[in-house]
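Need residues for this backbone.
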């Protein structure tokens, strides 16, 4: 019964709403990152296929598109860390409230 009691004690202190919210946050960040990357890749192909008349303009636009992709990755990593921070805060506050 030692293992069962230990698991029960840990599950009592888990903030289930925070776990669900963190999962939804991570899913949303992954969706944002994937859709943004796919949209910018499609934009690159459209510019290359239909609108590229001058190579210098095309090269500049491709650099801008790659910069936007890096901005998307930076934003996604920030929200990933922010979600993890909020989950940790949920664990700490749930434990503190249940001790009162």
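Answer:
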């Amino acid at each position: 019964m030692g293992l069962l009691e230990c698991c029960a004690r840990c599950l009592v202190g888990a903030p289930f709403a925070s776990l669900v919210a963190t999962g939804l946050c991570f899913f949303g960040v992954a969706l944002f990152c994937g859709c943004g990357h796919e949209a910018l890749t499609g934009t690159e192909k459209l510019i290359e296929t239909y609108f590229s008349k001058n190579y210098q303009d095309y090269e500049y636009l491709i650099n801008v598109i790659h910069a936007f992709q890096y901005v998307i990755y930076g934003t996604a990593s920030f929200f990933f860390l922010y979600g993890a921070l909020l989950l940790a805060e949920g664990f700490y506050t749930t434990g503190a409230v249940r001790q009162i």
